[in-house]
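REQUEST FORM: STRUCTURE PREDICTION
Request ID: SP-0412
Submitted by: Lab K.M.
Chain count: 1
Length (residues): 150
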Amino acid sequence: MALRLRLLFQRANMRAAYKLGLIVFLANAPLAFSQDRSAQPCPQVTPGTVGCQLVAWSHLQEPVPLPNPEAKPDQQPEQSQTQPQSAMQKITGIIVLMNDKYVLKAGGTTTYQLDDQERAKRYQDQQVTVVGTLDTASNTIHVESIQLPS
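STATUS: Completed
RESULT:
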């Protein structure tokens, strides 16, 4: 009888120890997976910047200024009137259907007409890079190629 009581007591102690160990493990598990919250120094922070630059921008990804909505069409510089076509360039945006024509939406309000509607139709509602020459007089891109960004 005493042996039986002793075995029951040992089992109860083992269960309690197991439960206590499980509680300690579960209480400390979030600490094991938490991230280090100490501040990491930025090596080249200059005055006027908000923080570390996380992205190295290429010349193709530089921000394009939005057109001034207050500017009137007749106030455009003389250069665009004398030279309507520019050199070959890459413009990234989304091809959308607007007024029964496919256009390249390259920013908040910047859109370009596309002269190759059949090729543009294949990329409807997709982010693409259009290679071509821009006719600034008609805001039309003479398409050489349309590619999905890599």
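NOTES: Residues 91 and 126 are 14 Å apart (CA to CA).
Reviewed by: T.R.
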